[in-house]
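Quick one:
INPUT:
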């Protein structure tokens, strides 16, 4: 029995049940508490581990028999807290821009946020493409993403989005992230455009296309693997 695509609420139930316990638990124990099939709960737990919201460990035991796989909740990392603050800040700036009659509220808010990152010393106007990619990659890593690039520098891979559980109901979050990427690159002066952000071509992976604004980008090859791809 697998996990249904629209089962975020059920997954949150599993996580809350895990948090309510004072010990690591296996799928069978949680299934008994929730009245669900063990395989369904195990599927949710494995996805929570993949998203960085739970940990998995094999039970150490002296007696015979297969050891249990135990799960425990993971506290929200500092980067995730920063990501939520960033989103709240950009939304506030966007509302202020709309109130002033600016139809491009997202772009305006993202630009102002990126400029604030420069003033705070978290982005530098480096003026070089490679350095610009390093600057923006480090900034988004601070926001809680796992970041990597193609050797050619034409793609930016983003994993472990702090908002992965919200984007199915609030896809505008992805538009905000796209705008934030573009504004961050502009703030560094590194001559990097972000024409597209491919949202979740694979689970927990978004791919930003990076382009030199002076030249026409060559067609990208199909996505076969990424530097962040988990080994088979």
């Amino acid at each position: 029995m697998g996990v249904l695509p629209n089962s975020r609420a059920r997954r949150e139930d599993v996580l809350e049940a895990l948090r309510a316990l004072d010990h690591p638990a296996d799928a069978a124990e949680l299934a008994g508490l929730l009245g669900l099939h063990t395989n369904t709960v195990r599927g949710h737990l494995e996805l929570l581990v993949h998203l960085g919201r739970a940990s998995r460990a094999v039970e150490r035991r002296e007696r015979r028999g297969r050891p249990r796989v135990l799960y425990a909740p993971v506290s929200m990392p500092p980067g995730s807290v920063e990501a939520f603050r960033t989103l709240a800040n950009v939304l506030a700036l966007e509302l202020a821009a709309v109130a002033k009659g600016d139809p491009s509220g997202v772009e305006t808010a993202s630009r102002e946020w990126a400029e604030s990152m420069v003033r705070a010393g978290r982005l530098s106007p480096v003026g070089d493409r490679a350095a610009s990619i390093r600057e923006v990659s480090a900034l988004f890593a601070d926001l809680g993403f796992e970041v990597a690039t193609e050797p050619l520098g034409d793609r930016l891979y983003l994993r472990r989005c702090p908002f992965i559980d919200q984007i199915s109901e609030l896809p505008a979050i992805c538009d905000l992230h796209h705008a934030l990427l573009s504004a961050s690159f502009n703030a560094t002066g590194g001559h990097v455009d972000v024409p597209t952000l491919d949202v979740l071509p694979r689970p927990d992976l978004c791919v930003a296309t990076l382009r030199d604004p002076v030249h026409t980008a060559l067609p990208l090859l199909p996505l076969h693997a990424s530097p962040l791809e988990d080994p088979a």
